[in-house]
From TrEMBL:
This is F-box domain-containing protein. Residues 16-57 form the F-box domain. InterPro entries: F-box-like_dom_sf, F-box_dom, KIB1-4_b-propeller, SCF_F-box_domain. PANTHER family: F-BOX PROTEIN SKIP23. It comes from Eucalyptus globulus (Tasmanian blue gum).
Length: 390
Protein backbone atom coordinates (compact mmCIF):
# COMPACT_ATOMS: atom_id res chain seq x y z
CA UNK A 1 0.00 0.00 0.00
CA UNK A 2 1.28 3.52 -0.76
CA UNK A 3 2.83 5.13 2.27
CA UNK A 4 2.86 1.91 4.29
CA UNK A 5 5.86 1.45 6.49
CA UNK A 6 7.89 -1.72 6.07
CA UNK A 7 7.55 -4.26 8.83
CA UNK A 8 10.23 -4.04 11.48
CA UNK A 9 12.75 -6.88 11.25
CA UNK A 10 12.39 -9.67 13.81
CA UNK A 11 14.98 -9.55 16.58
CA UNK A 12 17.53 -12.34 16.62
CA UNK A 13 17.55 -13.21 20.29
CA UNK A 14 20.41 -15.67 19.80
CA UNK A 15 22.72 -12.71 19.10
CA UNK A 16 22.20 -10.98 22.45
CA UNK A 17 25.50 -9.94 24.07
CA UNK A 18 26.86 -12.49 26.53
CA UNK A 19 27.20 -9.87 29.29
CA UNK A 20 23.49 -9.04 28.98
CA UNK A 21 22.53 -12.73 29.04
CA UNK A 22 24.53 -13.22 32.22
CA UNK A 23 22.83 -10.24 33.85
CA UNK A 24 19.46 -11.77 33.00
CA UNK A 25 20.54 -15.18 34.28
CA UNK A 26 21.45 -13.71 37.67
CA UNK A 27 17.81 -12.77 38.17
CA UNK A 28 16.56 -16.30 37.63
CA UNK A 29 15.31 -17.61 40.95
CA UNK A 30 14.83 -21.33 40.37
CA UNK A 31 16.52 -24.30 38.74
CA UNK A 32 13.53 -24.62 36.43
CA UNK A 33 13.96 -21.04 35.23
CA UNK A 34 17.64 -21.70 34.52
CA UNK A 35 16.74 -24.88 32.65
CA UNK A 36 14.25 -23.07 30.41
CA UNK A 37 16.69 -20.21 29.87
CA UNK A 38 19.43 -22.61 28.73
CA UNK A 39 16.97 -24.40 26.42
CA UNK A 40 16.39 -21.38 24.17
CA UNK A 41 19.48 -21.81 21.97
CA UNK A 42 23.15 -22.73 22.08
CA UNK A 43 24.36 -19.19 22.80
CA UNK A 44 22.01 -18.84 25.76
CA UNK A 45 23.02 -22.27 27.03
CA UNK A 46 26.72 -21.46 26.90
CA UNK A 47 26.24 -18.11 28.67
CA UNK A 48 25.22 -19.63 32.01
CA UNK A 49 26.19 -22.82 33.79
CA UNK A 50 23.48 -25.27 34.89
CA UNK A 51 22.32 -25.00 38.49
CA UNK A 52 24.13 -27.29 40.95
CA UNK A 53 22.08 -30.46 41.31
CA UNK A 54 23.47 -33.30 43.41
CA UNK A 55 20.17 -35.16 42.96
CA UNK A 56 20.77 -35.90 39.27
CA UNK A 57 17.74 -37.56 37.67
CA UNK A 58 16.48 -39.09 40.90
CA UNK A 59 16.98 -38.97 44.64
CA UNK A 60 20.19 -38.63 46.58
CA UNK A 61 21.98 -41.57 48.17
CA UNK A 62 23.27 -40.22 51.46
CA UNK A 63 25.83 -42.86 52.42
CA UNK A 64 25.95 -46.40 53.80
CA UNK A 65 26.93 -44.85 57.14
CA UNK A 66 24.20 -42.23 57.41
CA UNK A 67 22.92 -43.70 60.64
CA UNK A 68 20.31 -41.89 62.69
CA UNK A 69 21.79 -40.32 65.87
CA UNK A 70 19.76 -42.63 68.10
CA UNK A 71 21.33 -45.58 66.23
CA UNK A 72 18.05 -47.26 65.37
CA UNK A 73 17.95 -46.90 61.61
CA UNK A 74 20.22 -46.27 58.69
CA UNK A 75 18.94 -43.35 56.64
CA UNK A 76 20.19 -43.94 53.12
CA UNK A 77 18.09 -41.86 50.78
CA UNK A 78 16.89 -38.28 50.38
CA UNK A 79 13.96 -37.56 48.06
CA UNK A 80 13.30 -34.10 46.72
CA UNK A 81 9.90 -33.00 45.46
CA UNK A 82 9.13 -29.76 43.63
CA UNK A 83 5.88 -27.83 43.91
CA UNK A 84 4.75 -26.33 40.61
CA UNK A 85 1.96 -24.04 39.55
CA UNK A 86 1.01 -25.07 36.01
CA UNK A 87 -1.25 -22.97 33.85
CA UNK A 88 -2.18 -21.97 30.32
CA UNK A 89 -0.14 -19.01 29.02
CA UNK A 90 -2.14 -15.81 29.47
CA UNK A 91 -1.49 -14.86 25.87
CA UNK A 92 -3.26 -17.99 24.64
CA UNK A 93 -6.52 -18.08 26.56
CA UNK A 94 -7.78 -15.42 28.96
CA UNK A 95 -10.80 -17.52 30.00
CA UNK A 96 -8.89 -20.41 31.62
CA UNK A 97 -8.47 -20.17 35.42
CA UNK A 98 -5.12 -19.42 36.96
CA UNK A 99 -3.63 -22.87 37.23
CA UNK A 100 -3.18 -26.20 38.92
CA UNK A 101 -0.97 -26.96 41.91
CA UNK A 102 0.96 -30.19 41.84
CA UNK A 103 4.00 -31.69 43.47
CA UNK A 104 6.37 -33.83 41.44
CA UNK A 105 8.53 -36.28 43.35
CA UNK A 106 11.52 -38.21 42.03
CA UNK A 107 13.36 -41.11 43.59
CA UNK A 108 15.12 -43.16 40.88
CA UNK A 109 15.70 -42.22 37.22
CA UNK A 110 12.52 -42.82 35.29
CA UNK A 111 10.34 -42.86 38.43
CA UNK A 112 8.27 -39.75 39.00
CA UNK A 113 5.23 -39.35 41.21
CA UNK A 114 2.40 -36.84 41.35
CA UNK A 115 1.82 -35.92 44.99
CA UNK A 116 -0.63 -33.87 46.97
CA UNK A 117 0.96 -30.39 47.16
CA UNK A 118 0.39 -30.21 50.93
CA UNK A 119 1.44 -33.77 51.83
CA UNK A 120 3.62 -36.66 50.68
CA UNK A 121 0.63 -38.76 49.64
CA UNK A 122 0.70 -40.02 46.06
CA UNK A 123 -2.50 -39.87 44.04
CA UNK A 124 -3.83 -43.39 43.55
CA UNK A 125 -5.05 -43.10 39.99
CA UNK A 126 -4.70 -40.52 37.26
CA UNK A 127 -7.65 -39.72 34.98
CA UNK A 128 -7.73 -41.78 31.79
CA UNK A 129 -7.20 -38.71 29.60
CA UNK A 130 -4.24 -37.46 31.62
CA UNK A 131 -1.30 -36.93 29.20
CA UNK A 132 1.74 -39.17 29.44
CA UNK A 133 3.99 -36.19 28.59
CA UNK A 134 3.40 -32.52 29.34
CA UNK A 135 4.94 -30.11 26.84
CA UNK A 136 6.17 -27.42 29.19
CA UNK A 137 6.86 -25.07 26.27
CA UNK A 138 3.08 -24.80 25.85
CA UNK A 139 2.36 -24.23 29.52
CA UNK A 140 3.03 -21.51 32.05
CA UNK A 141 5.08 -23.12 34.83
CA UNK A 142 6.13 -21.51 38.10
CA UNK A 143 8.34 -23.30 40.61
CA UNK A 144 7.01 -22.46 44.09
CA UNK A 145 9.18 -24.54 46.40
CA UNK A 146 10.81 -27.81 47.35
CA UNK A 147 10.42 -30.37 50.09
CA UNK A 148 12.85 -33.03 51.26
CA UNK A 149 11.96 -36.42 52.74
CA UNK A 150 14.31 -38.99 54.26
CA UNK A 151 13.84 -42.71 53.63
CA UNK A 152 15.43 -46.04 54.33
CA UNK A 153 16.07 -48.47 51.48
CA UNK A 154 14.39 -51.83 51.08
CA UNK A 155 16.30 -55.07 50.67
CA UNK A 156 16.26 -54.52 46.89
CA UNK A 157 17.90 -51.10 47.51
CA UNK A 158 14.84 -49.13 46.52
CA UNK A 159 13.24 -46.41 48.67
CA UNK A 160 10.92 -47.81 51.32
CA UNK A 161 7.35 -46.64 51.64
CA UNK A 162 7.93 -45.65 55.26
CA UNK A 163 8.87 -41.99 55.36
CA UNK A 164 10.37 -39.84 58.06
CA UNK A 165 7.79 -37.06 58.56
CA UNK A 166 10.44 -34.76 60.00
CA UNK A 167 11.17 -31.29 58.67
CA UNK A 168 14.35 -31.26 56.57
CA UNK A 169 16.27 -28.26 55.16
CA UNK A 170 18.85 -28.76 52.42
CA UNK A 171 21.88 -26.61 51.54
CA UNK A 172 23.97 -27.17 48.42
CA UNK A 173 27.62 -26.19 48.73
CA UNK A 174 30.10 -25.10 46.08
CA UNK A 175 29.66 -26.86 42.76
CA UNK A 176 26.84 -29.04 44.05
CA UNK A 177 28.81 -32.13 44.99
CA UNK A 178 28.80 -31.24 48.69
CA UNK A 179 25.72 -30.56 50.76
CA UNK A 180 24.40 -30.21 54.30
CA UNK A 181 21.08 -31.33 55.79
CA UNK A 182 19.43 -29.92 58.88
CA UNK A 183 16.68 -32.11 60.26
CA UNK A 184 14.29 -32.10 63.19
CA UNK A 185 14.26 -35.60 64.69
CA UNK A 186 12.07 -36.10 67.77
CA UNK A 187 12.27 -32.37 68.41
CA UNK A 188 16.07 -32.21 68.24
CA UNK A 189 18.16 -30.60 65.53
CA UNK A 190 20.48 -32.99 63.72
CA UNK A 191 22.92 -32.19 60.92
CA UNK A 192 24.38 -34.32 58.14
CA UNK A 193 27.42 -33.21 56.13
CA UNK A 194 28.21 -35.04 52.93
CA UNK A 195 31.95 -34.79 53.54
CA UNK A 196 31.70 -36.30 57.02
CA UNK A 197 29.04 -38.86 56.02
CA UNK A 198 27.40 -38.97 59.42
CA UNK A 199 24.62 -37.40 61.46
CA UNK A 200 25.35 -35.35 64.56
CA UNK A 201 23.00 -33.87 67.16
CA UNK A 202 23.12 -30.08 67.54
CA UNK A 203 23.84 -29.36 71.19
CA UNK A 204 21.38 -26.73 72.39
CA UNK A 205 20.34 -26.94 76.02
CA UNK A 206 18.02 -23.91 75.77
CA UNK A 207 15.60 -25.55 73.33
CA UNK A 208 14.30 -29.02 74.22
CA UNK A 209 11.99 -29.18 71.18
CA UNK A 210 12.08 -27.57 67.73
CA UNK A 211 9.07 -27.15 65.44
CA UNK A 212 10.41 -26.05 62.04
CA UNK A 213 13.57 -25.41 60.02
CA UNK A 214 14.20 -23.55 56.78
CA UNK A 215 17.06 -22.46 54.53
CA UNK A 216 16.76 -18.69 54.12
CA UNK A 217 19.32 -16.40 52.47
CA UNK A 218 21.95 -19.13 52.60
CA UNK A 219 21.54 -19.84 56.33
CA UNK A 220 19.66 -22.42 58.39
CA UNK A 221 16.93 -20.95 60.60
CA UNK A 222 15.00 -22.93 63.21
CA UNK A 223 12.18 -22.09 65.62
CA UNK A 224 11.49 -24.00 68.83
CA UNK A 225 8.35 -24.79 70.77
CA UNK A 226 8.59 -21.56 72.81
CA UNK A 227 9.13 -19.37 69.74
CA UNK A 228 12.89 -18.91 70.14
CA UNK A 229 14.45 -18.47 66.69
CA UNK A 230 18.04 -19.47 66.01
CA UNK A 231 20.56 -19.58 63.19
CA UNK A 232 22.44 -22.87 62.90
CA UNK A 233 25.93 -22.58 61.45
CA UNK A 234 27.77 -25.16 59.39
CA UNK A 235 30.04 -25.64 62.41
CA UNK A 236 26.91 -26.86 64.31
CA UNK A 237 26.92 -23.70 66.40
CA UNK A 238 23.58 -22.19 67.44
CA UNK A 239 23.08 -18.43 67.57
CA UNK A 240 19.96 -17.11 69.29
CA UNK A 241 18.42 -14.65 66.89
CA UNK A 242 14.95 -13.85 68.19
CA UNK A 243 13.40 -14.66 71.55
CA UNK A 244 9.61 -14.59 71.30
CA UNK A 245 6.68 -16.10 73.12
CA UNK A 246 4.86 -18.24 70.54
CA UNK A 247 4.03 -21.19 72.74
CA UNK A 248 2.29 -24.05 70.96
CA UNK A 249 3.06 -26.82 68.52
CA UNK A 250 1.94 -25.40 65.21
CA UNK A 251 4.53 -23.03 63.79
CA UNK A 252 5.66 -22.77 60.16
CA UNK A 253 8.59 -20.92 58.62
CA UNK A 254 7.78 -19.65 55.12
CA UNK A 255 9.79 -17.64 52.62
CA UNK A 256 7.62 -15.17 50.74
CA UNK A 257 8.96 -12.65 48.21
CA UNK A 258 12.39 -12.57 49.84
CA UNK A 259 11.07 -12.25 53.39
CA UNK A 260 10.96 -14.82 56.17
CA UNK A 261 7.56 -15.33 57.76
CA UNK A 262 6.57 -17.24 60.86
CA UNK A 263 3.00 -18.55 60.84
CA UNK A 264 1.73 -19.36 64.31
CA UNK A 265 -1.52 -21.17 64.85
CA UNK A 266 -3.18 -20.02 68.03
CA UNK A 267 -5.51 -22.74 69.28
CA UNK A 268 -6.55 -20.93 72.44
CA UNK A 269 -10.07 -22.11 73.21
CA UNK A 270 -12.66 -19.96 74.87
CA UNK A 271 -13.54 -21.91 78.02
CA UNK A 272 -17.03 -20.43 78.07
CA UNK A 273 -17.80 -21.77 74.61
CA UNK A 274 -18.80 -25.46 74.70
CA UNK A 275 -18.09 -26.73 71.18
CA UNK A 276 -20.10 -29.80 70.24
CA UNK A 277 -17.76 -31.01 67.50
CA UNK A 278 -14.31 -30.49 66.08
CA UNK A 279 -15.89 -28.58 63.20
CA UNK A 280 -17.31 -26.06 65.68
CA UNK A 281 -13.90 -25.82 67.35
CA UNK A 282 -11.99 -25.26 64.12
CA UNK A 283 -14.37 -22.61 62.85
CA UNK A 284 -14.70 -20.74 66.13
CA UNK A 285 -13.46 -17.18 66.28
CA UNK A 286 -11.04 -18.07 69.09
CA UNK A 287 -8.87 -20.08 66.68
CA UNK A 288 -6.69 -18.13 64.28
CA UNK A 289 -3.44 -17.97 62.38
CA UNK A 290 -1.04 -15.17 63.26
CA UNK A 291 1.70 -14.18 60.82
CA UNK A 292 4.95 -12.49 61.77
CA UNK A 293 7.66 -11.00 59.56
CA UNK A 294 11.33 -11.22 60.49
CA UNK A 295 13.13 -7.91 61.00
CA UNK A 296 16.73 -9.11 60.75
CA UNK A 297 18.22 -5.75 61.76
CA UNK A 298 16.17 -5.35 64.95
CA UNK A 299 16.14 -9.15 65.49
CA UNK A 300 12.42 -9.26 66.21
CA UNK A 301 9.28 -10.79 64.73
CA UNK A 302 6.82 -8.04 63.80
CA UNK A 303 3.12 -8.81 63.36
CA UNK A 304 1.95 -8.87 59.74
CA UNK A 305 -1.83 -8.52 59.65
CA UNK A 306 -2.05 -8.27 55.87
CA UNK A 307 -0.23 -10.43 53.32
CA UNK A 308 -1.42 -8.26 50.45
CA UNK A 309 -1.48 -10.29 47.24
CA UNK A 310 0.24 -13.31 48.78
CA UNK A 311 -1.33 -16.69 49.56
CA UNK A 312 0.39 -19.10 51.96
CA UNK A 313 0.26 -22.91 51.74
CA UNK A 314 1.17 -24.87 54.87
CA UNK A 315 2.15 -28.46 54.07
CA UNK A 316 3.26 -31.41 56.14
CA UNK A 317 6.91 -31.24 55.05
CA UNK A 318 7.17 -27.72 53.65
CA UNK A 319 5.39 -24.39 53.36
CA UNK A 320 5.39 -22.07 50.35
CA UNK A 321 3.70 -18.98 48.98
CA UNK A 322 2.32 -17.67 45.70
CA UNK A 323 0.70 -14.49 44.46
CA UNK A 324 -3.05 -14.35 43.98
CA UNK A 325 -2.46 -12.94 40.49
CA UNK A 326 -0.46 -16.02 39.45
CA UNK A 327 -3.14 -18.25 40.96
CA UNK A 328 -5.83 -16.47 38.97
CA UNK A 329 -7.58 -15.47 42.18
CA UNK A 330 -9.37 -12.24 42.96
CA UNK A 331 -7.77 -11.78 46.39
CA UNK A 332 -4.83 -12.80 48.50
CA UNK A 333 -4.30 -12.64 52.27
CA UNK A 334 -5.30 -16.30 52.60
CA UNK A 335 -3.70 -19.35 54.23
CA UNK A 336 -4.33 -22.89 52.94
CA UNK A 337 -3.75 -25.94 55.10
CA UNK A 338 -5.05 -29.46 55.69
CA UNK A 339 -7.14 -30.17 58.74
CA UNK A 340 -9.00 -33.01 60.36
CA UNK A 341 -12.67 -32.06 60.35
CA UNK A 342 -15.80 -33.81 61.53
CA UNK A 343 -16.85 -35.27 64.83
CA UNK A 344 -14.33 -37.18 66.89
CA UNK A 345 -15.67 -40.57 65.74
CA UNK A 346 -15.55 -39.66 62.04
CA UNK A 347 -12.58 -37.42 61.25
CA UNK A 348 -11.25 -36.84 57.75
CA UNK A 349 -8.51 -34.67 56.26
CA UNK A 350 -9.87 -31.73 54.29
CA UNK A 351 -8.37 -28.74 52.55
CA UNK A 352 -9.25 -25.61 54.49
CA UNK A 353 -8.69 -21.87 54.15
CA UNK A 354 -8.08 -19.17 56.72
CA UNK A 355 -9.05 -15.69 55.58
CA UNK A 356 -6.88 -13.12 57.34
CA UNK A 357 -9.28 -10.34 56.39
CA UNK A 358 -12.22 -11.86 58.26
CA UNK A 359 -10.29 -14.04 60.70
CA UNK A 360 -12.42 -17.07 59.80
CA UNK A 361 -11.84 -20.62 58.62
CA UNK A 362 -13.74 -22.31 55.83
CA UNK A 363 -13.62 -24.86 53.00
CA UNK A 364 -11.90 -24.04 49.71
CA UNK A 365 -15.31 -23.90 48.02
CA UNK A 366 -15.96 -20.64 49.88
CA UNK A 367 -13.32 -18.93 47.75
CA UNK A 368 -14.06 -18.82 44.04
CA UNK A 369 -11.36 -20.30 41.84
CA UNK A 370 -9.28 -21.85 44.60
CA UNK A 371 -10.90 -25.29 44.73
CA UNK A 372 -9.76 -25.86 41.11
CA UNK A 373 -6.12 -25.53 42.22
CA UNK A 374 -6.14 -28.99 43.75
CA UNK A 375 -7.13 -32.50 42.74
CA UNK A 376 -8.56 -33.57 40.29
CA UNK A 377 -6.54 -32.13 37.37
CA UNK A 378 -8.30 -29.43 35.33
CA UNK A 379 -9.82 -30.26 31.95
CA UNK A 380 -7.36 -28.10 30.03
CA UNK A 381 -4.41 -30.25 31.12
CA UNK A 382 -5.55 -32.86 28.57
CA UNK A 383 -5.93 -30.33 25.76
CA UNK A 384 -4.45 -30.98 22.28
CA UNK A 385 -1.36 -28.95 23.22
CA UNK A 386 -0.32 -31.71 25.62
CA UNK A 387 -1.32 -34.92 23.91
CA UNK A 388 -0.01 -38.19 25.40
CA UNK A 389 3.20 -39.49 23.89
CA UNK A 390 4.36 -43.08 24.11
Amino acid sequence: MPGAHPAAPMADWSQMPVDLLRLIARRLDTQFDVLRFRSVCSSWRSSVAPSPNPFGDGGLRISPHGRDPDDRLEIDFLSRSTIFLVGVPRSRDQTVPGGWLLKVGKDFPGRMHLLNPLSSCEFDRLPEDFPRVLDLMNLRVLELGHEYVLRCLNDDRRPADILFPDKVAFMCLGNGNDYVLLRIASGKLTMFKSKEKRWSIIQDTLSPWYDDVILFNGEFYAVDRAGRTVIVGLDSGVTSFVQSNFRGREKFLVESVGELLLVYRDRSLDAENDHESLVDYLTSETVQFKVYKLDSEEQVWSRAKDLGDRVLFLGDECAFSASAADLGASKGNLIFYREYVGRAADLSLKMCVYDMDSGRFGPTEDHAGFSELFWPPPDWIASPTSEPQV
